[in-house]
Write a structure and sequence with these properties.
7 helices, 58% helix, elongated
Length: 157
C-alpha cells in the first residue's frame, strides 16, 4: 500500500510542477482578421458566426477559456489551434494569393456543409459555435459569392 501512496504523491507533485509550464498562447488582437473581413465583406450574421465558430482556431487571436490554465489541457488546446491555423489562418489572409483564397473558401464550404467544422470537441463547450442549418446555408451562400470574386480575378484578361 505504501508504494501506491508514494506513486500517487509523485504524480501529484509532477502535476503541480507542470502547472508552471505551458505552450505559447495565441493572443494577437482580433484586429488581425480585419483584412479578411475587409476583403470578403461578410454580412453581420456571417461575421458573427465566423467569430464564434472559426476564429479561435483559425486566426492569430484565441479567446481562451478558464480551463486553458490547466496543464495538460492547455497543450491539447494549443495543438488544436496550431493545427487549425496550419489549414486556414484568417489573420494571414492577405498572404494568400487569389487562387489559394478561392481554395480555402471552397474548403470552408465543404467542411461546414459536412459538419466537420467546427469540431464537436469545440462545440461541446462553446455552444454558440454550433451552426444551425440556416447558419450553414448563410455561410455557404456568402462564401460561394466571395469565391466568384477570386475566380474572376485569377482568369487571364
Amino acid at each position: 500500500m505504501k508504494i501506491i501512496k508514494k506513486i500517487g504523491l509523485l504524480l501529484l507533485i509532477i502535476f503541480a510542477v507542470a502547472q508552471f509550464f505551458g505552450p505559447e498562447r495565441n493572443e494577437e488582437t482580433i484586429i488581425s482578421v480585419n483584412a479578411f473581413f475587409a476583403d470578403t465583406n461578410p454580412p453581420e450574421d456571417v461575421k458573427k458566426n465566423l467569430k464564434y465558430a472559426c476564429l479561435d482556431c483559425h486566426s492569430d487571436s484565441t479567446e481562451y477559456p478558464w480551463y486553458n490554465k490547466i496543464t495538460p489541457v492547455n497543450y491539447w488546446l494549443a495543438g488544436h489551434v496550431t493545427d487549425g491555423k496550419k489549414h486556414l489562418n484568417l489573420s494571414k489572409w492577405n498572404d494568400y494569393d487569389d487562387k489559394r483564397k478561392d481554395h480555402k473558401l471552397n474548403e470552408l464550404i465543404e467542411m461546414v456543409k459536412t459538419k466537420e467544422m467546427p469540431l464537436d470537441s469545440y462545440t461541446w463547450v462553446h455552444n454558440e459555435a454550433k451552426l444551425s442549418a440556416a447558419q450553414i446555408e448563410s455561410l455557404v451562400t456568402w462564401a460561394n459569392a466571395v469565391r466568384l470574386k477570386y475566380v474572376f480575378l485569377k482568369e487571364p484578361q
